[in-house]
Amino acid sequence: MEICPKCSTNTFVIRAGMIRGKVRYHCKTCDFHFTQEHSEKSIPQKQIHTTIKDIANIMGVSIATVSRALNNKSDISPKTRDAIQKLALELDYNPNLFAKGFQRGETKTIGVVIPNIKRPFFAGVLSGIQEIANEHGYRVMICQSNESYETEVTNIQGLLASHVDGLLISHSKETTRFNQIKNLFDKGLPMVHFDRICTEVDTPKIRQEDFEGAFQLVEHLIQQGYQRIAILAGPPELLISQKRKEGYIHALEKHGLAIQTEYILHGDFSKEFALASLDAWQQLPEPPDAIFAIHYLNAVEIIQYAKELGIEIPQKLGIVGFGDEYLAEIVEPALTVFHLFPQKVGEVAAALLFDVIANKEARQQKDVLVQGQLIIRKSSLKKG
Fold first, then answer.
1. Triad 293, 294, 300: Cα angle to 5°
2. Where in the sequence is the domain holding 75, given as residue range(s)?
3. What's the number of domains the chain is made of?
4. 196 in a structural domain
5. What is the per-residue DSSP string for 116-147?
C-alpha cells in the first residue's frame, strides 16, 4: 500500500487509474491525488497463473481496461495500453485459452483414448494425430485405458470434463458395452473410431485391411508349402480378431486346406498366452507347421521361444504376424508381417475428426480404409 506524501498515512489510499504512464492514487484522508511509478516491490512475486484481475489490481484499473489493453483495442490510451502490456510481460501473464474457447463454444482441444500407449502401433497413431492437430491449431489430450473398460469410461468422462471439441477412440479389449459412446454421439459430440471400432454407433471409422491382410499372410504361407497352419487369435469379441480370423479361414478354404479347430486359439495378447499356445500345439499328434499371430509381438515372442525349444524356423515352423515395427525386423529370423502404417492411420483419423468438427451435420458414418502392405522376411521363406 502506498503512503500519501501529504498526510503520511496509507489507511485510505486507493488506486485511481493511470496518468501519463504512472499509477494514480487518491488519499481519502486528506483528499489528495498523487502519482507513483509502480516499483518492483509493488509487483507481487510471480505466480504460476497470473490473471487479468492481478494486473488490474496492480495497475489500479478495471479488469475491462486490462482486457482491452491486452487485446490491443483502440478505445484506450497508448500509454495505458503499453504500461499494462509491459506489466503483463513482467508477470508472465498467459491468456486462459480454455476460458476464451469455452466462451466461443470450443476449446481447440481434442481427446484421444487408446488401449496401450506402450505399443508401437498406437505410438505411431498418436504421432500422426499430433501432426494433423498441430496443422489445425489444436491441442491433444491423450488417455490410456490400459485395456480396461472401467478405465476407458473414466478417461472419457475426464475428457468431457475438459470440454474437448471431439474424440478419437480405439476401445479396450474388455469393452463390450457402448452406452456411453451412444449417448455422446446422440448429443452431437464429434467422434471418430479407429483400429478397435464400435459397430453399434454410426460414427465415422478408420478401418484397416484386417481381412485382406490376414488372407495375404496365410496365402503366402500356403504358397511356401505350409499345410498345417495355426492361428493365434485375440479376444473373440474384438472385431479385428473376427476379421483377421475370417481372412485366415478364407485363405485355407481357397486352397482346399482343412480348418482344424485345435489350430485355432483365442486369448489375450500376453506373452504368457503366446508361449502356452505354442506348448499346446507342440503336444498335438500333428503339430502345426506354421503359425499366424494376429498381433506381431506375439509372433516375435513365439520365434524366440521356438528357438529355445530347438524348433528350426522357417524349415520346421513358419511364422507370420499382423502389424510391424523395428523389433520385427531385428528378431532372428526377421518376421514376415502385414504392415499397417500407423502414422497414416493417425493422420487420416485426425483429419476426419476435424472434418466432422467443422461440419457436425456431416457426422454420419463414413468408413475410410487405410491400406496395408505384405512384407516378406525370412521367418516364412521355407522355399528360400
1. 45
2. 13-96
3. 3
4. yes
5. -TTSHHHHHHHHHHHHHHHHTT-EEEEEE-TT
- Report whether 110 contacts 140 (CB < 8 A): yes
Expressed in angstroms, the distance from the first to the final Cα of the chain is 87
| φ, ψ dihedrals at 92, nearest 5° | 55, 40
Nearest to 359 by CA among 166, 109, 79, 206: 166
What is the Cα–Cα distance from 69 to 53, expressed in whole angstroms? 13
Kindly state the cell numbers that stand for 366: 463414413
Of 96, 120, 144, which residue sits at a domain end?
Answer: 96
316 and 353 together in one domain? no
CATH number for the domain that contains residue 214: 3.40.50.2300
Q: Is 266 helix (H, G, I), strand (E, B) or coil?
A: strand
**Contact (CB, 8 A) for 338 and 323:** yes
Per-residue pLDDT of the chain (384 residues; tens, 9 = 90+): 567 777 777 666 776 666 655 667 777 777 777 776 544 444 444 455 677 888 888 877 888 888 888 877 878 888 888 888 888 877 777 665 555 554 555 789 999 999 998 888 999 999 999 999 999 999 999 999 999 999 999 999 999 888 899 999 999 988 988 988 988 888 889 999 999 988 888 899 999 999 999 999 999 999 999 999 999 998 998 889 999 999 999 999 999 999 999 999 999 889 999 999 999 999 999 999 999 999 999 999 999 999 999 999 999 999 999 999 889 999 999 999 999 999 999 999 999 999 999 886 665 668 899 999 999 999 999 876
